[in-house]
Each structure stands twice: as C-alpha cells, then as structure tokens.
Design goal:
Largest sheet: 2 strands, antiparallel
Strand content: 5-15%
Order of helices and strands: EEHHHHH
Low-confidence stretches: none
Structural class: mainly alpha
Helix content: 40-55%
Radius of gyration: 13 Å
Number of domains: 1
Shape: globular
Strand order of the largest sheet: 1-2
Distance between the termini: 19 Å
Number of strands: 2
Length: 103
C-alpha cells in the first residue's frame, strides 16, 4: 500500500491513487486530487461526488449508467465534468474505492 501527502496529511492510497480509507477524505483533499487529474471542481462536481460517496458508502455498486439515471447529472454531463474516464476520475476524487466495473 502506498501513501500520499495532501495538505500536510499522510493518506493511505492504492498503487493507482485511490484512498483506502474513505473516512480520510475531505473536500480539501478532493480539490488536491482533482488538481492532479487536471480538473477544477465546481458545485456541480461536488453534487456528483456527494452522490457517489453516499451510494458507495451504502455498499452500492456504481456504473456510468446508474450515475446518468441518478437525477444529479445525465451521462453526457458526467463525461463533460470528468472527461476521459469519468467513473474512474470521479470515484478517485470522491475518495472511494475504484469501481469493479473500471479496468
């Protein structure tokens, strides 16, 4: 297991940079991870991130399709907010485990 330092705090992460303990996540850490991913977060990003955290912490599996049907954002908007690999980027920034559906 690896570690990263965000805002002076040492955080446990996987080799791919996903937090291993979701309780270590803060919005400030999310902003730092987003910078690494080349993103500047907006309120809309945080609405999606909050939805992702809520679902994952309840034990639900996420897919791009389920996020598109969430009522928070549609699939096209999800790709626009998190270009490239939206589910991978969004879950990493949200401080939750990489979804099983992501390669």
């Amino acid at each position: 297991m690896a570690e990263k330092v965000y805002l002076g705090k040492t955080i446990s992460v996987t080799d791919e940079g996903y937090l291993t303990d979701a309780s270590q996540w803060t919005k400030e850490i999310a902003l730092e991870i987003a910078k690494e991913e080349g993103l500047t977060l907006t309120d809309k990003h945080f609405a999606v991130i909050d939805y992702i955290r809520e679902r994952v912490l309840k034990g639900e599996a996420l897919t791009i399709r389920s996020i598109g049907k969430s009522g928070v954002i549609d699939t096209k908007g999800f790709y626009e907010l998190f270009p490239g690999a939206p589910l991978k980027k969004a879950t990493k920034i949200a401080g939750v485990a990489k979804p099983v559906s992501c390669v």
